[in-house]
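FYI - complex with S-adenosylmethionine, inputs then prediction.
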Amino acid sequence: MSNTKEIAKRIASLCKGVYVRNYTRSKLLSDPLYGGVFEELKGREMPLLDVGCGMGILGLYLRERGCEMPIHGFDYDGRKIEDGKFMVEKGGYEGITLSQGDARSELPGQEGDVSILDILQFFEEDEQRVLLGEAAKRVAPGGKLVIRSGLQEKNLRFFVTWLGDLFARACFWMKAAPVHYPTSEFMRTVLEKEGFEVEVRPFWGKTPFNNYLIVGIRGHLIK
Ligand SMILES: C[S@@+](CC[C@H](N)C(=O)[O-])C[C@H]1O[C@@H](n2cnc3c(N)ncnc32)[C@H](O)[C@@H]1O
């Protein structure tokens, strides 16, 4: 069994129900998300704040890949936070904490690296600007802001991304439907104004979605 398969199996085995277990396993095996974020964060020691963490799978994945930074996940879905806490405890992971709250009105005060994965589409454009500004304040000098988002483009991938998010809402996996997808230009403009060097690159792997990885680096890059 490959390392990827072992990690997916182990993390999925911590999930409470069969549906969530299968979903988590197949996401870990098919989506380049966590592996790509690992490549950005490996070897780093600053605390990581994961905004919209869901069940905190990123944190568990980073631990399984040997990352040791303190990790705090934050999400407004109380059920996911409770499930995530259960998984952290069951898996015996150290230094991973999770808390519930709405990123529209608050973010934990921690400073270091920040990740925002697949949540911007639930925010209106003005709300995205505010969220990115608040996240930026939590990125320490030399820190990284790692974002994945579907970006608005006139192509089939974008349409499939939107349909996927509508489906997630229809089957109650998400508490909300998507309201607005940012453009690449919007991301660059907002993050450069916040003082980041910005890199935007396609990040869909073998999935049909129009996802991009957006990495903001504050000051010089410390890997
Ligand atoms: C598609 S999921 C991504 C979960 C996680 N980032 C990952 O990639 O594994 C989007 C997450 O954003 C959370 N979310 C949406 N709006 C939010 C808000 N206003 N405040 C905090 N979390 C929010 C949802 O509850 C959900 O867990």
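Residues 33, 52-54, 57-58, 75-77, 80, 102-104, 117-119, 122, 175 surround S-adenosylmethionine (CB under 6 Å). The beta strands are 48-51, 71-75, 96-100, 113-117, 144-150, 196-202, 211-218.
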